[in-house]
Fold:
Amino acid sequence: MKTAALILAGGKGERFWPGSRSAHPKQFLSLTGDGISMIAHTVERILPLVAMEDIFISTNESYRSLVEEQLPGIKKENIICEPVARNTAPGIGLGAVHMRKAYKDAMMLVLPSDHQIGKPEEYIKCLSAAMETAEISEGLVTMGITPSFPETGYGYIRADVGEKCADAFKVERFVEKPDLETAKKYLEEGGYLWNSGQFIWKVSAILSAMEKAVPSVYSGLEKIESAIGTPDYENILLQEFEKMESVSVDNGVMEKEKKIFVLPGDFGWDDVGSWLALERLNKPDADGNIVQGNAELSGVSSSIIRADKKLIAVVGLEDVVVVDTEDATLICSKEKTGDIKKLLAALKAKGREGYL
Amino acid sequence: MKTAALILAGGKGERFWPGSRSAHPKQFLSLTGDGISMIAHTVERILPLVAMEDIFISTNESYRSLVEEQLPGIKKENIICEPVARNTAPGIGLGAVHMRKAYKDAMMLVLPSDHQIGKPEEYIKCLSAAMETAEISEGLVTMGITPSFPETGYGYIRADVGEKCADAFKVERFVEKPDLETAKKYLEEGGYLWNSGQFIWKVSAILSAMEKAVPSVYSGLEKIESAIGTPDYENILLQEFEKMESVSVDNGVMEKEKKIFVLPGDFGWDDVGSWLALERLNKPDADGNIVQGNAELSGVSSSIIRADKKLIAVVGLEDVVVVDTEDATLICSKEKTGDIKKLLAALKAKGREGYL
Structure:
């Protein structure tokens, strides 16, 4: 059976402002100083399992040209643009019907475009194992990350360690982002994994699950599928997609399904959730600083400095994040990167959307 | 008797990097957000006492075009360029011989170009009083600032409060920058004033004092004076000036002279010694911030943000100084503005003089 991948690349990535913008979000940035964007790394990483011509990108019209520019190997007809945002269930369903049209059935990998994988070989092994589970079980498989600390920013998956299918465990339940106490408890108890938002299933399995769990979404998808390759495609896509319920694949589909499995993975996964991730993705210098671009530091420690062309000179500070771009410079306390959203809201309220 | 002014505008102002550059130092910046440079304010401030045509600017060739651009009212022949730096005694002496050539004698005001005066009317009164003392005494008069706190960054002048001439006191002695203990003692004891580097004397008085105190400098000045207005001026200026001893007017002349007076002044003087001065020169907002230019702040307090065209976005920080310019951005802890010099030294060592 053909293996195909759907890479999700429609996100906005506000937490990476001003590096990311509404017109140029995080997945199109290089955050490791190698000049290669996260989405390009994502594609490259899965080439041992998926042929370039079988990789699909789920995005929207605003990012089409970035995708074409950064991923010249992707077939034009594999760039799937959602006409409006309807969360992951309709988005993934749209990818799935494109694959059904192309291959009848296929092993489908659903992968975020803006995560970092520190151990790519280990990652390929885990994906292969997940594919095996999906093949044998005909169910829905997700990859869970063995937690290394009580993170409160992720959802968790409780594995039923008594019931296995190949290397994966049956999922007992999904749990929402916990508070710190609960997260600590999960870590102590064991059997909890971070939900990394990576899915492996057969196209037939996910579409059949959608037919049961979100029938109205599914019937819209069927109409879109029959229009693929016809001149009516764009019109029908817009008409049907707009009507769809906005629901995530986790809540809307997985939680209603019985045959769901989680494969525990330990492959250096990082969701690259904020500028602070640069400390994990890059090796800090002797003063604990991550310095990229044209910067000069004096008496600076534990800081993240991402300069561009202009000289960024930092003196006598610690725990700061500085990100310079063509038209905006962010200077932020490491503790307060979550407040970047407040700043963006203030800019929006002042009608300064040009900076967003 | 004619009143003439010599405005000293040859300084580099490293502490105002990156606003100031070796090619564009502090006196040519506007630091109050009104777009008017410090030197332009200096000229404007003394117009009640000195006609524009009697104002001389002491600078060097690198800054001549800035002077002409910012001070179009100054006569071209009144822009005096030192061919090499030789501290204030030769520099002021050069101005004095130009004045002697033009006026035979005159009341001469010697004023820095990069200080701020908060109460200009009070200032004019003090200058007038100092001129009166200089007229009556035929001596050298300086303006001293009544200290408001134990500043360790200035030299002090000890006044002999028992001996007056008009409103000024005889100077007992000049003292170098004290340590904090000593500065506190000065403040308690009274009779100590800050040395503001502003001098008032007759051209004949300062030149006669120089003839006695620094005779080799004086004889060079005489040679230069006779070349003023001739085609040999530039050559003789360079030849004589280069030979002169590098010495300040305080140490080299004033301290050796008997008839020296100090006029205590309280006219909102500020030497604008570093970016921190912006907090004194401008009214902070409700969060204690000084914000100039295109900036957006969230959770920021007690900070100085001087943006230019690019958006400067600051989040969750206090006590920082941010200065953006065309090709460099400084981000500095308020406590560490003194370390800007270290940074500049590092840039120089790396051959990056373009930024200096």
Observations:
- Chain B has a mean pLDDT of 94.
- Residues 275-355 of chain B form one domain.
